[in-house]
Description:
Blueprint: H1 2-18, H2 26-38, H3 59-68, H4 70-84, H5 89-100, H6 105-118, H7 123-131, H8 138-151
Amino acid sequence: MHGKRSSVATEFSRAVANRADEGWCNEVLVMPSEIAKTHPNPEVGTMLLLSSKEDKETVHALLTTAINCTRGCAARAIAQVLWEHESRYDLLKDAIKSAVFDEHLAINMAAVDCILPMCNFARDTVNGRIKMHKKGEEKMYRSGIRLRLFRRGYC
């Protein structure tokens, strides 16, 4: 049932991400924001792609799910828009907060992409978001954040 809707939502988010430098109107940017907050894909407790060697959540499985699931693609679109247009932050901040507090750890990982461009204009908010993690997932979540920050040259 969600297959076609997931595909359309994912492709729409990817289109916005790939053309983030466009001057999208608010009505367009609200769509990936709503997708990031409310779409059912991925479901809690599922990973989209696990190799036969991975029977549990690893950083690799989480990152793979984050970049291929519908809410993760929407988070990436939001991140790309923020890199190009930091003035859109107020419109998108609820979706970022939703991704940070999402039940699915892969979406928490996708939230890192949204947080990174904020380092340029909202450092205090960034520091607060990075500290907002679930206690039981601290090691996995922090290692994912460190990996992403390192790859982007922030640490």
